[in-house]
Amino acid sequence: MTALVERTPGVLGVDPDAADAALAAAGDTQAFERLYRRHTARIHSLARRMIGPEEADDVTQDVFVRAWRKLGLFRGDSLFGTWLYRLAVNVILGRRGAVVKYRERHDDGDILEMPLHSRGERVDIRMDMERALDTLPKGARQVFVLHDVEGFTHEEIAGMLDVTAGTSKSQLHRARMTLRQHLA
Amino acid sequence: MSDTWTDRLSEYVDDELDAVTRAELETHLLSCDECRTITGDLRLIRATASRLENTGPSGDLWAGIAAEIGAGSAGSPADRVGTPADRVGTPAGSVRVIPMEPRTRRSFTFSIPQLAAAALIILGLGAALMWQIERTRSASRVAVDSPDSGAVRTVSTSTVTANEAGYDVAIEQLEQAAELNRDQLDSSTVRILNESMTTIDRALADARAALAADPANPYLHRHYDRTMKQKLEILRRAATIQRGGA
Question: Residue A66's closest chain B neighbor by CA?
């Protein structure tokens, strides 16, 4: 998870959220709100990319409510941001049987047809990619987001989705090739 | 886009091919324009994905979260670990919830020697309290068998574990148990207990502030840990004094 570590604010080994996490664990809701403010964009983006914008708000709220309830389990072995992020991934993957949906998609080999955008319409390739993610089938989208956006390894993704690393690689390639078509 | 190498291109850009396969593919790329183009596109997609910016929700979600966690209405770890009855092991409704003084946080600066001096003070107060509690215990063993001590018996502290993650829960339990026991203690013990708690809470607040400024300082972590354990030990003694030394 190199990318995830690199994207975590602060110097490696020093958790900038430690104080607020400790205060929040002791019941300080203001400290927890500060944690929410610092991490909500990242969690919301993860949710939006993995399961779509229509559920992102709800999932984000769910993640933070669960984080509040589980703060007593946070031991500081990892950065708070990493811990929260892992929790968010679990919540998202557990949402409405996301893993089951993944398997269904994978078994069917279902890659959706996507409308091609002309280069003239493109304002920013990143914005195009955000939109293109919505059109990917859920399984390919999850693998792509986890691997290319968030930096998880295929082995980690395989563990999360209960598939083989080979399946994860295959889905990643299909997602990239589909995105390539969309972004052409 | 139909040759046998196409499906390996993602592994190639991710540098996941073994050396032999990689060499073969690179040889193929020299003669295949399409695969070279795809490889370039896949690299662009991967690079773009890694640079996607995180954006928050269009509206503020905090209000909904605050409502769920009880922010602004005394939300606390107690809400997360069960009812007060659960925490002290007594039937619901039979527990007197005792409001404890809020733990104040201070914002002054201090040095490691100052922290060490505070630790010595705590040790001194702790020793005095232990001595006083032991003295009271000897003088009050009869009270253990009195009917009035029934409420105290319902408080279980044996299951309290003082690991790092459970400090606050353990402290809450012990504070409640100690408060229930407060009437059983003589005035001098209560006075020393109060002084000890005030000193320890101040030391803990200082340690928290220091850790916030220097989270990686091992001395501060050890100091905080030691102080927390001293607080737990004093509270444990205060909570169990009427248990006849059990």
Answer: B69
3-state helix, strand, coil split of chain B in percent (to 5) is 70, 0, 30
What is the full per-residue pLDDT of chain B (246 aa) written as tens digits?
A: 556 899 999 999 999 999 999 999 999 999 999 999 999 999 999 999 998 999 899 999 999 999 989 876 444 444 444 333 333 233 332 222 233 333 333 333 445 555 556 555 555 655 665 666 556 555 544 333 333 333 333 333 333 334 455 667 667 777 777 677 666 667 767 766 776 777 677 677 776 766 666 666 655 666 677 777 777 777 777 776 654 443
Residues 6+ apart with CB under 8 A from B126: B196, B230, B233, B234
Q: B61 and A57: CB-CB below 8 Å?
A: yes
Q: Is A176 on the interface with B (CB under 8 A)?
A: yes
Residue of A40, A46, A183 to mutate when probing chain B, most B C-beta within 10 A:
A40
**Whole-prediction pTM value?**
0.53
Structural tokens at position A184: 């052409």
Residues of A in contact with B168 (CB under 8 A): 25-27, 72
Cα–Cα distance, B191 to A150 (Å, whole number): 56
